[in-house]
Each structure stands twice: as structure tokens, then as C-alpha cells.
């Protein structure tokens, strides 16, 4: 998939740099807000300093406005880039298929070529959209959140050493089992398209020989195969989000429990505990966002491989290197005493 992305996202390097810069602004804004909130609690609420609360509150509103605008602009350019990427890939596939001889078309089959230029491109296109919005910002927020959490309190940060690897293990175990099923699912979609196309093309013959019941059963079998594969994949990923939410809630309880003791001992201020909880939530939310991407990546990877197969196929009938505009003649036809009536 990386090869396909590198090739067809290369013309949009400047836009990608702009999107990355905007997402950096968004991430820094998200990470700065809990720090300001902690400052308001420690230096404003606890001391009763209304002027300080209003001052820092105004800064928080300004930061929120800036990273909100940056987020909107980033989403706009991400969507536009992804749509143009899909357009370019579809065009490249169409132009390559136009060069195919009957031999290549039969190797892929027409229904499979249709699926590769529609559904497969859509799967990769969706990953591009999510990558340009989520996969860039999520690691920045996660890494920045870890740094800010350590600055708030080193002892509480030790919880992250347990929580983050546990989440990665859960995600990895599910993805490893799901990846092979996505390639099978795309083949099942090809089969559905094949049955439908043959049914529509030969509708007169089917009715003439009273094969309606046979064709209905044929489609039902193909549909059942696709449904079965999709259910296997969805059952796997249905386990992911509840498991991650359970880990997130356990982590929050742990922070409140140990943080409460630190506040009671006077070694941690309430504002810092609030900021730490916010950073932990941001870290784990970023991991969960990456999980949502991981759900899409295996299927998109299978689709990208199928697209690349079409683009890498060279037709066995090629244009001559030096085409001749004159066709040699082996004989001459002469017509005499011929008229047209």
C-alpha cells in the first residue's frame, strides 16, 4: 500500500506539508489547554483570584479558537487531497485496462476489474482521509501527552507504562487475526459482482430456460459467503472498543486513587491532578483513534494490493517501437468495366 500512496500522493507534497503544520497547531492547542486549566485551579480558584481566572480563561478561549480553525482547514485540505488521490488512481487503472487484451481481462475477470476500480479505490481513499486527519495528530498528541503527564507527576506517570503496552497487545492480537479475512472479503465481493453481472447479461436466457430458482440460489450462496466473512471480521473488532474502554476506565480509577493520596499528602496540587487526568485521557483517546484507523488499514492494504496488481500488469500485446503508417501490399486488384447502379 505504501508504494501506491507514495506514487499518487507525490503531486500533493505542499498540501501534505500544510496539513501537517495545521495538525501540529491543533495538537499543541489540545495539550496546552489542560496546563492552563490546572493554572486556573491552582492560582485562581483556590486563591479566589477572579482577575486571574478571567485572564487565563480568555487565553483558553483564544487557544481553542485557533486550534479549532486549524482543525477545520486541515480537514478541508485532507478531504480534497484524498478525493483527488482517488480520482488519479481510478484514472490510472482505467487507462491501464484500456491497454489490456482479452487475455488480461479474462485473467482478472470483468467483475473483479470493476470492484478494483470502485470499492477497492474507495477503501484506500478512506484510509488516506483518516491518515491525514487522525494518524498524523494522534501520535503527536499521544507523545506530547506523555511528556506533559510526566511533567505534572512522575509517580502517576508510571501507570502509563502498564496501560499503553496492554492496549497495544489487545489491538495487535485482534488485527493479526483480522488481516487475512479482509483479502477474503474482497474476493467475496468480486464473486457477488460476477453473479450479478452474469445474471443481468443473460437474463433472457435464464428466463427462457426457467433457471430463475437456480440463479437465486447461486446469488444466495455468494451473498451468504460474503456475510459470513464480514461477520467474522466484525465480531473481532466488536471486542476491541469495549476492551479499550475498560482499560481506559481502569486507568482513570487508578489515577484518581493514587492521585487522591498524593493530594491528601500535599505532594500534588488539585490542578495538577486534573491536568494529569486530562493528559491520560488524551493519550488513551489518541491510541483509540489509532485503533479506529487500524480497523481500516488491513482491508485497505488488501485493496491496494489488488489495485497494484492491475497497474503492474503489462499487456502481452504492445505497441511497436517504430510503427509504420504504410502497409505493404502483396498484390494488386484491378477493376475494369465496373459501374455502380
From TrEMBL:
Q: List, alphabetically, the GO terms of the cellular component aspect.
A: plasma membrane
Residue ranges annotated for the ABC transmembrane type-1 domain, each copy included: 17-299
**Keyword tRNA-binding on this protein?**
no
InterPro entries found in the cross-reference section: ABC1_TM_dom, ABC1_TM_sf, Type_1_exporter
Query: Under the GO molecular function aspect, what terms does this record hold?
Result: ABC-type oligopeptide transporter activity; ATP binding
Alphabetized CDD domains for the sequence: ABC_6TM_Tm287_like (cd18548)
Classify the main location.
Answer: membrane
Q: Which keywords annotate this record?
A: ATP-binding, Cell membrane, Membrane, Nucleotide-binding, Transmembrane, Transmembrane helix, Transport
What's a Pfam family in this record?
A: ABC_membrane
Q: Does the keyword Nucleotidyltransferase apply?
A: no
Q: What PROSITE patterns has UniProt attached to this entry?
A: ABC_TM1F
What subcellular compartments does it reside in? Cell membrane
Which parts pass through the membrane? Answer: 53-77, 126-150, 156-179, 236-258, 270-297
In the bilayer, the protein is annotated as: Multi-pass membrane protein
Return the protein name.
Answer: Unannotated protein
Q: Which organism is it from?
A: freshwater metagenome
Amino acid at each position: 500500500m505504501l508504494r501506491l500512496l507514495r506514487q499518487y500522493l507525490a503531486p500533493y507534497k505542499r498540501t501534505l506539508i500544510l496539513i501537517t503544520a495545521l495538525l501540529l497547531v491543533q495538537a499543541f492547542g489540545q495539550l496546552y489547554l489542560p496546563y492552563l486549566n490546572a493554572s486556573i485551579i491552582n492560582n485562581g480558584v483556590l486563591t479566589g483570584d477572579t482577575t486571574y481566572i478571567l485572564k487565563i480563561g480568555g487565553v483558553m478561549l483564544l487557544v481553542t479558537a485557533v486550534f479549532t480553525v486549524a482543525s477545520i482547514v486541515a480537514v478541508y485540505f485532507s478531504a480534497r487531497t484524498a478525493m483527488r488521490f482517488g480520482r488519479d488512481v481510478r484514472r490510472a487503472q482505467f487507462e491501464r485496462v484500456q491497454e489490456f487484451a482479452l487475455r488480461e481481462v479474462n485473467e482478472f475477470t470483468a467483475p473483479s476489474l470493476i470492484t478494483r476500480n470502485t470499492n477497492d479505490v474507495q477503501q484506500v481513499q478512506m484510509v488516506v482521509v483518516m491518515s491525514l486527519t487522525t494518524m498524523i495528530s494522534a501520535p503527536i498528541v499521544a507523545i506530547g501527552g506523555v511528556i506533559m503527564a510526566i511533567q505534572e507527576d512522575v509517580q502517576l506517570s508510571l501507570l502509563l507504562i502498564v496501560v499503553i503496552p496492554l492496549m497495544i497487545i489487545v489491538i495487535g492480537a485482534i488485527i493479526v487475526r483480522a488481516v487475512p479475512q479482509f483479502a477474503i472479503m474482497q474476493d467475496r465481493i468480486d464473486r457477488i459482482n460476477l453473479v450479478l453481472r452474469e445474471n443481468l447479461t443473460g437474463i433472457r436466457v435464464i428466463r427462457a430456460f426457467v433457471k430463475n430458482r437456480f440463479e437465486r440460489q447461486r446469488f444466495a450462496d455468494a451473498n451468504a459467503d460474503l456475510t459470513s466473512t464480514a461477520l467474522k471480521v466484525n465480531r473481532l473488532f466488536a471486542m476491541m472498543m469495549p476492551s479499550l474502554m475498560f482499560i481506559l476506565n481502569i486507568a482513570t480509577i487508578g489515577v484518581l486513587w493514587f492521585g487522591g493520596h498524593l493530594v491528601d499528602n500535599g505532594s500534588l496540587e488539585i490542578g495538577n491532578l486534573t491536568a494529569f487526568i486530562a493528559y491520560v485521557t488524551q493519550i488513551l483517546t489518541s491510541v483509540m483513534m489509532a485503533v479506529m484507523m487500524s480497523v481500516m488499514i488491513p482491508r485497505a492494504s488488501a485493496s491496494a494490493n489488488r489495485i497494484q496488481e492491475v497497474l503492474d500488469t503489462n499487456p502481452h500485446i504492445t505497441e511497436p517501437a517504430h510503427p509504420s503508417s504504410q502497409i505493404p501490399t502483396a498484390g494488386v486488384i484491378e477493376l475494369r468495366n465496373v459501374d455502380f447502379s
